[in-house]
Every structure is written in structure tokens, then in C-alpha cells.
Specification:
seven-stranded mixed sheet, two-stranded antiparallel sheet, 33% helix, 25% strand, 5 helices, Glutaredoxin, 151 residues, alpha+beta, thioredoxin-dependent peroxiredoxin, Thioredoxin_domain, 9 strands
Length: 151
């Protein structure tokens, strides 16, 4: 599985619109926060997703894109995205190839987690498992810490 210092794996998943996304290119322009939820539109996952939604401008201001990854179908993700006004793309990985590569597959379940990749795709931080309410906060604090050490 992908460990700190490794690059984003070269795998293709679909976004919530059903378009192919090459995972290895996600961090070509900016850093990336990838957070994983076990199931779209369930209480814990919604708490985590809305947490990222509420601090989304903070991530973009720091030069990071946010993506939500789950094994749900693009149509289920679109429904959830619309319902909760989620401002970031949702990635669908029904075969759990990317989820597995990240080390977050647990049989036919997904471990709630998040991963912070720098621009260029190198993994800097990962949290498996993580509490829904803590995930956005921890990811943001980690990135703010990077900015502090970079200056």
C-alpha cells in the first residue's frame, strides 16, 4: 500500500459525473487531500464530508484540492453531492482498487481515512482510521503546519 513518501498510484477511477480520472495526475497542479468514506449519505460520512465542505476555502487558499473517495456509484455520489452542496469532486472506486492501494480497504468495506499529497503527488500524511469530525480539522492543521515549516 502507498506509504508516506510514495507517489499517487497510477489508477483510473470515475468522478461523480462518470468521467474517467487518472489518479496520478490529480496532484500535477496543486496539493491534494483525498478523504475516504465508507458509504455516501450516511451520518458519519456526511459529517466528514460536510466538515471538508465547511473548510474547503481554507484548503484551496493553501493550494490544495479536496477529493472524496468511496466505493459508491457515480449516481449515488451525485445525489449526495447535490443534497449536501459538496464543492469538491467525488471519486467512485467500486472495485476498491485505489482504496486498496491506499491501504484503506477492509474486505468489502472502506476504512474512514484521509491522505495529504503534496503538489507532484508525494504522500505526506495519512490517517487510518480517523473520526468523521476530526478528519477535516486534522488534514487542515497538517497542511497549515507544512506552510509554517516551508516559510
Amino acid at each position: 500500500s502507498v506509504d508516506v513518501g510514495d507517489l499517487l498510484p497510477s489508477l483510473t477511477v470515475q468522478n461523480e459525473k462518470g468521467e474517467d480520472v487518472d489518479v496520478s495526475t490529480l496532484a500535477s497542479e496543486k496539493g491534494v487531500v483525498l478523504f475516504l468514506v465508507p458509504k455516501a449519505d450516511t451520518p458519519g460520512c456526511t459529517q466528514q464530508a460536510c466538515g471538508f465542505r465547511d473548510v474547503y476555502p481554507d484548503f484551496t487558499a493553501l493550494g490544495f484540492d479536496v477529493y472524496c473517495l468511496s466505493a459508491d456509484s457515480p449516481s449515488a455520489q451525485t445525489k449526495w453531492q447535490t443534497k449536501k452542496s459538496l464543492p469538491y469532486p467525488l471519486l467512485s472506486d467500486p472495485k476498491r482498487q485505489l482504496i486498496g492501494a491506499l491501504g484503506a480497504a477492509n474486505g468489502n468495506k472502506t476504512k474512514r481515512s484521509h491522505f495529504v499529497f503534496e503538489k507532484g503527488g508525494k504522500l505526506l500524511d495519512k490517517k487510518i482510521p480517523v473520526k468523521p469530525v476530526d478528519s477535516p480539522k486534522l488534514a487542515l492543521e497538517f497542511i497549515k503546519g507544512l506552510q509554517a515549516t516551508a516559510v
